Amino acid sequence: MSDMTGADLVDLDLSADTKEAAARALAERMAARGRVTDLEGFLADVAAREAQLPTGLDGGIGIPHCRSEHVTAPTLAFGRSGRGIDFGAADGPADLVFLIAAPAGADDAHLTILSSLARQLMNAEFTDALRAVADPARAAALIRGEEPAAGDEDSAERASADGEDSVAAPAAASAVAATAPATGEPQPSAAPEPPFRIVAVTSCPTGIAHTYMAAESLENAAREAGVEIVVETQGSAGFERLDPEVIAAADGVILAHDVPVREKDRFAGKPTVDTGVKAAVNRPGELIGEVRAKAARGEATAGGAAGSAGTAAATPVERGGEPGEGYGTKLRKWLMSGVSYMVPFVAAGGLLIALGFAIGGYEIDKAPSVTDHFAWAQADSWAALFFQIGGVAFAFLVPVLAGYIAYGMADRPGLVPGFVGGSIALTVNAGFLGGLAAGLISGAVVLAVQRVRIPKALRGIMPVVVIPLISAAVVGFLMFVVIGKPIASAQEAMTDWLDGLSGANAVLLGALVGLMMCFDLGGPVNKVAYTFATAGIAVSDPSDSAMKIMAAVMAAGMVPPLAMALATTVRARLFNAAERENGKAAWVLGASFISEGAIPFAAADPLRVIPSSMVGGAVTGALSMAFDATLRAPHGGIFVVPLIGNPLLYLVAVAAGVCVTTALVIVLKGLRKQARDSVTRDPGDADPSTRTPGAKQPVSA
Description:
Layout: E1 10-14, H1 19-32, H2 39-52, E2 56-57, E3 61-62, E4 65-68, E5 75-85, E6 94-103, H3 108-120, H4 124-132, H5 136-144, H6 152-166, H7 170-179, E7 197-203, H8 210-225, E8 228-233, H9 244-249, E9 252-257, E10 272-275, H10 277-282, H11 284-297, H12 316-319, H13 327-360, H14 379-395, H15 397-410, H16 415-427, H17 431-450, H18 462-499, H19 503-519, H20 524-537, H21 544-570, H22 577-591, H23 599-604, H24 606-626, E11 630-631, E12 644-645, H25 647-680
Parallel strand pairs: 1-5, 3-6, 4-6, 7-8, 7-9, 9-10
Antiparallel strand pairs: 2-3, 5-6, 11-12
Region (Disordered): 144-194, 302-324, 677-701
InterPro entries: Bacterial_PTS_Sugar_Transport, PTrfase/Anion_transptr, PTS_EIIA_type-2_dom, PTS_EIIB-like_sf, PTS_EIIB_2, PTS_EIIB_2/3, PTS_EIIC, PTS_EIIC_2
GO cellular component, one term: plasma membrane
């Protein structure tokens, strides 16, 4: 720890007003020590981590941290603010700020030391000592553990014992149980009731700070509540799996995480509280009370205890969401779950079909099956092979969409009825609308079946026989007999409407899909536009209107990354070093139709980048429709230009949108720079000697 911090990395009079300014002040100390090679790049990584989850903790603590390729060695800088800085904690601003920097490939030993510090932050004596210390060298010594705080020796011994408990083998856990105080009233002539046993998992995106702070907080709260807890920290330094016997003996489970829990199925059948990692840091006692209440009610995840209602485990969508999300938010995530699994089939199948057209021409769709005729030396045979493989991949689009919508709602039990319903949607010509309906119905049916109380003897066959049988039968009946035909009629009406679009209406539709493609750069709105376009060409003989929409969607999706790449080339001084480096990669990403290439720029400056991108995307989409450009492939960017109808005008449309977005970004960023420069030249700050040492100017919005 001695080489990770020092007096030169301590600022006991941190004068920053914002968390960004505080991070910059501390990062500059790291850079002066040679621990940070690119200050702006490192700060961008810190900001990206902060955007995932606020790093403020109750008790006046801010702990910004990240892993970054711009860090040469694990480093910690500490600042103490007299006014307090808002890091997003519920109880107000932080006066103790710890900036933790870890290299992208930090070794386990250093990360273990950083995790020990994270646990120390839960120690009131430690934080009180840091608030009282007057010498930077002594503060650094406290952080390194070389100068224990008052009362810290006892707490260190206790923490060491707790650490042993948290990784104890079953025998050790039993020994603890034998000596722990009973939580219930002792019964006459009977052994004391054993303590309530909990197993827990903590994890955060970086795996350095919150992971271990949550573990320490849970252990402290469990000690006060008289319960036994064993915590598995899934941090950057790896993790030691809980012993299966310890899990089997547990009465409840707490999962405090902001990234997926590894091997989560180990905890099936237990009363479970599934929440974010900050909840375990800020209110561990409530979580322990909640899991005990669930155990008392007999609630359990799938495969739960006898007599329970079989409360289902958190679904994939729920695991990635926030507590208390509304139905509209969940519906959007269910739909996006299906779309995200469908997109690889779209890309693979569409590009294979496009390759078949490129080699064999547009008549290749009439070629006989390659199982009946295939000549190794004939290009047409290879073209037919690629086309037919792509067609098979496309045939999975609607079943995969429906299956994984149901999966997002009901986890694995939803897959069977979802795929069955999606296949029926194809059979009755209900298309993508039928797939959407089948997925939602399948998930709802499975959830309804799981809520039915069943005898304990039947629970073993529920996931293998009963749920697939009942849900597939119900969904099949509804799709074949009740709603399949009406949805097919609606799908046909929508197709006819698209075929009838021309002139101004077509141009307006192109502008609309262009706006949607650039609104969130790969997010839900972008995916809605993309799915709308691919639905039109995912048939054996797509209409001309459907191919025009596909062309407009792909053209607009290429605009944001290409525009950001051009802007960093034309006006490099408006962008920091990390953005200029991202601009180089954006050339390739944009040319490949990967809209996400513009996300780093949008995340850093959304108010200027996103509106500019939307305007450029709308221009490109409208021009593509006006030029009657068509596209049979759902992906590929400039690499499928030979398959585009009116390719030269299509490239003109893309170039026009890129130029519009680039110009707007440069103008808006230039105006911001002028405003910032005018603040810097303010007469009151003209004399550097009048400034408070270490003070930083807040960054403009």
